[in-house]
């Protein structure tokens, strides 16, 4: 009788484990919290979309944040079980502007594993510019990164003043 209980428990655990592991978005969102999630999305976008501006990425960051909240709700949508890379690529490919700016049309025409492979190849081919050696450039980059991480919605009027100061 004890073996039957142990076997039943193992079957129950093996059936319930995949549903928890499949919602990768909620796992990531709860582990690194909202600000860390925004930062992770920003870094991923910046690495994959080097020809885009922060303004181009803000809607995608907001969309990803909303998805993180939805995936951690009591009744997460079916999209939460999809592969994170596939969700990211679908979001990028849904924006014609981002696709054109970053030369991703060929990747977005592909599906599943082929599309992922194309995105990885595209990222590997990106030529990263060497930053200027002036100390002010590093400070400006740091402040812009701080603005992005802190949240564009919190800055409002002070953002314009800070950007004017950076360009002087």
UniProtKB/TrEMBL annotation:
<dbReference type="GO" id="GO:0036094">
    <property type="term" value="F:small molecule binding"/>
</dbReference>
<dbReference type="GO" id="GO:0005737">
    <property type="term" value="C:cytoplasm"/>
</dbReference>
<keyword id="KW-0732">Signal</keyword>
<keyword id="KW-1015">Disulfide bond</keyword>
<dbReference type="GO" id="GO:0072562">
    <property type="term" value="C:blood microparticle"/>
</dbReference>
<feature type="domain" description="Albumin">
    <location>
        <begin position="14"/>
        <end position="168"/>
    </location>
</feature>
<keyword id="KW-0964">Secreted</keyword>
<dbReference type="Pfam" id="PF00273">
    <property type="entry name" value="Serum_albumin"/>
</dbReference>
<dbReference type="InterPro" id="IPR020858">
    <property type="entry name" value="Serum_albumin-like"/>
</dbReference>
<dbReference type="InterPro" id="IPR014760">
    <property type="entry name" value="Serum_albumin_N"/>
</dbReference>
<keyword id="KW-0677">Repeat</keyword>
<protein>
    <recommendedName>
        <fullName>Albumin domain-containing protein</fullName>
    </recommendedName>
</protein>
<feature type="signal peptide">
    <location>
        <begin position="1"/>
        <end position="21"/>
    </location>
</feature>
<dbReference type="InterPro" id="IPR000264">
    <property type="entry name" value="ALB/AFP/VDB"/>
</dbReference>
């Amino acid at each position: 009788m004890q073996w039957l209980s142990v076997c039943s428990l193992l079957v129950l655990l093996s059936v319930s484990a995949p549903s928890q592991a499949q919602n990768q978005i909620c796992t990531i969102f709860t582990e690194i919290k909202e600000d860390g999630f925004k930062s992770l999305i920003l870094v991923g976008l910046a690495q994959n979309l080097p020809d885009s501006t922060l303004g181009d990425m803000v809607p995608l960051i907001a969309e990803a944040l909303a998805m993180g909240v939805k995936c951690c709700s009591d009744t997460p949508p079916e999209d939460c079980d999809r592969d994170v890379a596939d969700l990211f690529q679908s979001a990028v490919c849904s924006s014609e502007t981002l696709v054109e700016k970053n030369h991703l049309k060929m990747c977005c025409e592909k599906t599943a594993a082929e599309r992922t492979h194309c995105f990885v190849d595209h990222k590997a081919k990106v030529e990263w510019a060497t930053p200027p050696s002036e100390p002010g450039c590093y400070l400006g980059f740091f402040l812009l990164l701080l603005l992005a991480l802190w949240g564009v919605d919190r800055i409002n009027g002070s953002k314009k003043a800070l950007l004017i100061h950076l360009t002087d």
